[in-house]
């Protein structure tokens, strides 16, 4: 599924680079890995910068066969792939959790950022999914106090280990999604937001508190609030047990 896989020392944004390649007609399967990213972007327009060698910054270019209305699953798929691959590499006793929609947590600290984008080109629609994983960041280098890194969590891995694991798991989940158009069962099985008291904040709206009850066929989070069962396509989630 993957190829070519390009590795560069530094770039502004791996997502921007692959988006440009898509506009030029590049087919799906291309992977770009950077040792340093200086102008990365995260979910909700947040910036994502990585010091040289301290993080794994990677993007994949996809040419999905599924109808674009199902492409919202791609960012959740990436979270599944990262959480599953890190769980296989984790030291004994480290808890790997997936918080809706795609935050990967190590003992409650966020270790990963994910951004998926749709790209329109003359050759047709493409998707670019970017993944940034904190590899060796120290506490002083962390962007926020609630973040962590693989090194701080006790992982003894290389960037190559991480990239190989993520690509393997991404392909596994991607093939299921291409065949079925959803990853609801796989996602529900791994998502720590389900069955957990939480608060969700959506821009321009007051925060709502409740209990995560599941995700629907489109990956929207289902939360039981005082108003009943509500569904959210976007939002920031805080787990009460991890606050």
UniProtKB/TrEMBL annotation:
Pfam families: BPL_LplA_LipB (PF03099)
Source organism, top-level taxon: Bacteria
InterPro entries, per the entry: aa-tRNA-synth_II/BPL/LPL, Biotin_CoA_COase_ligase, BPL_LPL_catalytic
Keyword field: Ligase
One of the record's GO cellular component terms: cytoplasm
Domain BPL/LPL catalytic: 1-178
GO molecular function, one term: biotin--[biotin carboxyl-carrier protein] ligase activity
NCBIfam families reported in the protein's UniProt record: birA_ligase
Protein's recorded name: BirA family transcriptional regulator, biotin operon repressor / biotin-[acetyl-CoA-carboxylase] ligase
């Amino acid at each position: 599924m993957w190829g070519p896989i390009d590795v560069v020392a530094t770039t502004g944004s791996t997502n921007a680079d692959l988006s440009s390649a898509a506009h030029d007609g590049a087919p799906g399967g291309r992977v770009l890995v950077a040792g340093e990213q200086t102008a990365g972007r995260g979910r909700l327009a947040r910036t994502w910068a990585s010091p040289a060698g301290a993080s794994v910054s990677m993007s994949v270019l996809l040419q999905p066969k599924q109808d674009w209305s199902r492409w919202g699953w791609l960012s959740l798929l990436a979270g599944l792939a990262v959480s599953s691959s890190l769980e296989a590499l984790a030291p004994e006793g480290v808890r790997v959790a997936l918080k809706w929609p795609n935050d990967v947590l190590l003992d409650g600290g966020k270790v990963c950022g994910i951004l998926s984008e749709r790209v329109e080109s003359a050759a047709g629609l493409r998707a670019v999914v970017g993944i940034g994983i904190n590899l060796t960041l120290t506490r002083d280098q962390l962007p926020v106090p609630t973040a962590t890194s693989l090194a701080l969590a006790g992982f003894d891995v290389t960037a190559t280990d991480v990239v190989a694991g993520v690509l393997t798991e991404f392909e596994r989940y991607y093939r299921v999604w291409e065949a079925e158009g959803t990853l609801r069962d796989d996602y529900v099985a791994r998502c720590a937001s389900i069955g957990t008291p939480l608060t969700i904040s959506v821009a321009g709206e007051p925060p709502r508190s409740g209990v995560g009850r599941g995700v629907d066929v489109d990956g929207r989070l289902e939360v039981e609030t005082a108003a009943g069962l509500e569904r959210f396509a976007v939002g920031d989630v805080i787990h009460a047990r991890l606050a």
